[in-house]
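Deliverable D4.2, example record:
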Amino acid sequence: MNGRNVEQDLGEFFRRLDTPEPSERLRAAVAAARLQAPASRMGRTTRRTALSLVGLAATVVLAAGLVLGIGLRGQPSATGAPGTFVATGSLTTDREMSVTSTLLADGRVLIIGGDHGQLANGQQPPTTAEIYDPRTGTFSRTGSPIGTRWDYTATLLPDGRVLVAGGSTEKNGLADSSPSAELYDPTTGQFAATGPMVADRSDHTATLLPDGRVLIAGGTSADGIAAVAELYDPKTGSFSPTGSMTFPPGYGETATLLADGRVLIAGGLGFGDPASAQVYDPATGTFSPAGSMTTGRSSHTATLLQDGLVLISGGTSNNGMAAFDSAELYNPKTGKFSSTGWLIGPRGNAFATLLRDGRVLIVGGDDPTTPEVSLASAELYDPSTGAFNLTGSIPNPPGYALTATLLSDGRVLVTGGRLAFLYTP
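Output generated by the structure prediction step:
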C-alpha cells in the first residue's frame, strides 16, 4: 500500500460521502498523511495503517473544508458553537428595511424587498428577490417581483408557493398603499399576479389558517386605518371579506395562530387601546374580544409556545418614543394575559423565533433612544423558568431592521443589509 493507494482510498471515502473529489484537497490530505509515517516504511504500510491514514487525511480535508467555508453536499457551510452567530454568504442586494424572509418547503429561504432609504432620496427600492441555500451558504438571484413594494407580507402556502400581498408602492414619488398581490413559485423561480385584495393596505398581518386560506388583517390604507379583514383562498386565487374586527389595530400589531386554529391579534397603533386584543375564529368568520395585555404595546413580538401559550415581548409605546423590556403570556384557555420574565433590556421591532427545544430566540430590534441602531445582543426565553438570558451577540449588526428565519436543520438565519449570520442554538 503506497501513497497512491492512500489517494485511491481517499477517493473511495469521498465517493461514499457522495461528494466531489477536490484534487487540491486530496493532495494536501495525502501529503499530511505521509508526514505521519517514516518515509522508509511508506511503501510497506499495512492496509490497517493506510486506512488509519485515510481517516486522518479525511479529517484534515473535512476540517479544511469547514475552515475555508467549503460546504460538502448535505453539510452546512457555516456552523458555530452553540449559542453563537457566525457569518454566512452576503446578500446580492442591500436590503435593510421592510424585508421578508420566508422558509420554503425545500429548505431554502426566499428574501424579498427592502428599502434602504432609496425612495426618500428619489431612488427606487430594490426590485429583486433572492434565495439563500443553507447547503452552500450562498445567496443567488431569483425571479423579480412584479412591482416594488415594502411593508407587505409574505406567506408560505401549503402547495409551496409564497403569497406576497399588499404593502406600499411608489406613486408620483410618494408612498401609496396597494391592494395588489402576487405568488412566487419556487419550481419556476417566477412571480405571477393573483388577487387583488379587497382593500389596499400596508403594515398589515397575514396568517396561514389550518384550512390553507390566509387571514389578512389590520394595517393602514390610503383612507387611514384598514378596518376590513379578508381571506385569501389559494384554490381560487381570490380575496373575500370576512367578519368585522372588534377594533382596527392600525399597524404594529401581531397575529398569532393558536393551537386550536383561532388567531390572536394583539396591540398595535390604531383607534383602539394598544393593550387590546381580539381573536378571530375561522369556523364562524368572526372576531371577539380577548381581554387586555398587561401593557399596551406595538412593534412587539408574539410567539406560540409548545405548551399553547403565547409569549409577547418588548415593543414600543403608543407614541413610539419608548421601548419596553416587559413580557407577558396569553392563555387561550382562560383568555387572559399574565406577566412573565423581563427582557435583558428594552427592545422594539425585534424578531422572535421558536427553537426546536421550545426556547425562543429574540434578536435585533432597537431602542427609540438610539434610533437606526440595531441591538447586537440576543437573548433566549426559557418557558420552563419564565426567564430571559443573554446568548451570543451579532457581530457588527447592520441596521435595526433584521430578519430571522428558522431553518430546517434548527439553525436560525439572520439577515440585514448585505450581511447574513447563522445562529446555532
